[in-house]
Amino acid sequence: MTDIDVEAVEEIDDAAVPSGVDAPDYVLYGGKGGVGKTTMAAATGLASARDGTSTLIVSTDPAHSLSDTLETDIPGEPTQIREEIPLYAVEIDPEDAFGENPLGVEDSLGPLAELLGDDMADPFGAAMPGTDEAAAMRLLVRYLDDERFDRVVVDTAPTGHTLRLLELPDVMETMVGRLIAFRERMSGVMESVTGMFGEGDEQLEEGMGDLRELSRRIERLRAVLQDPEKTDFRVVMVPEELSVMESERLLTQLEEFGIPVGTIVVNRVMEDLTDVADIEADWFVSPNLDDCEFCQRRWEVQQKALQRSQDVFRGHDVKRVPLFADEVRGETLLRAVAACLE
Predict the structure, then answer these.
(1) Which of 40, 189, 205, 210 is deepest in the core (most CB within 10 A)?
(2) Helix, strand or coil for residue 240?
(3) What is the pLDDT of residues 112-154, one digit of tens each?
(4) How many CB atoms lie within 10 A of CB 5?
(5) Whole-prediction pTM value?
(6) Domains in the chain, ordered, with CATH?
(7) Listed residue (259, 257, 283, 277) closest to 320, CA to CA
(8) CB 255 within 8 A of CB 52
């Protein structure tokens, strides 16, 4: 890198930073661990809320780096974290999430829960694959029709976890369908042994009504996630061979789920900020590709990876975010990132 002593960034021209974002109602950032998904989600959320759009940033990553990135404590319930703009954030604590029942299902299942067992009583319970993903799905279902938020930006857990999250609607739909079918097949038997459960038939009908409502919500969630007018799953990668390979696999798997991917974000590219964003950047420390051998060799590695990425990029909107000399945290640098994503 250069040996120039550059003072820390104190402010970025407001006119150069996007006010609002051109994005659907749900924006999910996914990719290999450590590629910068939290940074992108935070930058997008900040930009989205700047034009008055009520925006919620959801972190489903157990590492919970969103608080560090935004430099504020983020609780386990949606909380407005900026007074001047409608920006909300929540970090999911899987243990707390499983102590709740946001859909209100198991309490009304009554005797059906006794018959099927505790694990089946709560379809989002411990029997489901991936506790943090199930907790995230709970919140997505809960916030789907939440009138407080016009846009939800999701910082997902690393790729393997994300894919299990995306499997949950299929798993849930299958399980709820089986429960409903089981109830209908056993209706005669249930009626004959109603005395075993007290007010069994009435409670069973109430429980089955809740299951049908849950099934409808799952189907709605699936429709939203698969609708490019509603959802953009954005794959974040860095210009390195392993990240490219991971991104290729993720794109293939997302395609199998029918999840639209509109944007590819290439993070930590060794370019000048002015090459990727229309922003004043006197403060930006650029890689010295003329005299720094380390910078030159890293740039060669990145160029090879970027060349390999052409198939990944094809058909997608590609955004590049440069490698910053400083750790990207706090609103000032996040606004610079938002300008790169515009």
Answers:
(1) 40
(2) coil
(3) 444 444 444 444 444 444 555 555 666 677 777 788 999 999 8
(4) 6
(5) 0.79
(6) 26-104+128-167+226-341 (3.40.50.300)
(7) 277
(8) no
